Amino acid sequence: MLPFTVLLLLLYVTPLPISSVALPYKQQGFLDLGKNFNVEGLMMMMMNDEEEGSAFEEVHPLEHPTCPFGCQCNLKVVQCSDLGLAYVPHDIPPDTRLLDLQGNQITEIRETDFKGLSNLYALVLVNNQISRVHPRAFVPLRRMQKLYFSHNLLTAVPKNLPPSLVELRIHDNNIKKVPAGTFSGLGSMNCIEMGRNPLKNSGLEPGAFDGLKLNFLRISEAKLTGIPKGLPDSLHELHLDNNQIQAIELADLRECEHLYRLGLGYNEIRHIEHGSLFYAQNLRELHLNNNHLPSIPAGLPEMKYLQVVYLHSNNISHVEANDFCPEGFSMKRTFYNGISLFDNPIKYWEVDPSTFRCVNDRMAIQFGNHKK
């Protein structure tokens, strides 16, 4: 039979009438890519963008259409993946909108590789062996919006990227330094994925992100020991999971007032300075799982829109009645959809049932499974 306090806890977290229920924040408009990805999803995104009026020139079809040997060319999509290519092939049709070169053995991008491809929308170079990029290689691609360069051997962010670029994926390379001005002139960019590079905080020079109006930035699986300085104040998502971050200091999130999702799981965080979460008042999701936190971070009750908090796999041993919810219901605009506390040394039967009075559903709370 369940202890009386547990029964009370279950009663407290059953659905309650609320003034406003918001759906969990969901990323829009980006592909979450692995080492190989389905080009069909990218094609759908391209067609949607074209329907919304993305500009491109009308190129008159050639009298004798060309297609690189071994590739497949159809509907302005050229697929040359997994062919063992050592270089970007010749004879790419000038009206190409999507060029897929993933899974080859390309080692360098030459100056004239993309000559004449002024209408290219997306370029996929994932999973090659590229270590050299000519500084003028991307100059002809003045309408390119998406560049997928993950799983290569790059040591620097390529130069002279097109001002039209919206999305850049350079995950899993060998980039150790991002100098000031690296992304200058890229005011249309709203997504950068550069995780799994050996980047330290010292490698992100002051001004590295100047001029950007990003919505999404991921620098996971790197060598960061703290939240980077000088991040764009436009960010909606910041993912810094799987680093070596040890603390969140008072000024770390000062320019993150528009942040909706913050990922800091799988770090070494032991301390969150009181008041440091104050600047992220619009946060919907906070991921602090798999760290070394000894207690619930201060400031959660004042976060009016917070819906999901991951705190599992820490060293939290006690939960106070006001750790999550404000004392007055009028202060909370949306109720919690998820609070994970499992794999912590918490005696859940001792938790005050009123602790979760601002949770939307009792199934949203996860306790238990602590391994000593």
Would you kindly provide a written description of the structure presented here, covering whatever features stand out?
There is one protein chain. This protein is mainly beta and 372 residues long. It contains two helices and 18 strands. The protein has helices at 4-12, 39-51; strands spanning 72-74, 77-79, 98-100, 108-109, 122-124, 132-133, 146-148, 167-169, 191-193, 216-218, 237-239, 247-248, 261-263, 271-272, 285-287, 308-310, 338-340, 365-366. The strands form three sheets. A 14-stranded mixed beta sheet has the order 1-2-3-5-7-8-9-10-11-13-15-16-17-18, covered by helices on one side. The protein has a two-stranded parallel sheet with strand order 4-6. The chain starts with a helix and ends in a 6-residue tail after the last strand. Mean pLDDT is 87; it is low at 1-25.
Could you outline the blueprint of secondary structure elements for this entry?
Blueprint: H1 4-12, H2 39-51, E1 72-74, E2 77-79, E3 98-100, E4 108-109, E5 122-124, E6 132-133, E7 146-148, E8 167-169, E9 191-193, E10 216-218, E11 237-239, E12 247-248, E13 261-263, E14 271-272, E15 285-287, E16 308-310, E17 338-340, E18 365-366
Parallel strand pairs: 2-3, 3-5, 4-6, 5-7, 7-8, 8-9, 9-10, 10-11, 11-13, 12-14, 13-15, 15-16, 16-17, 17-18
Antiparallel strand pairs: 1-2
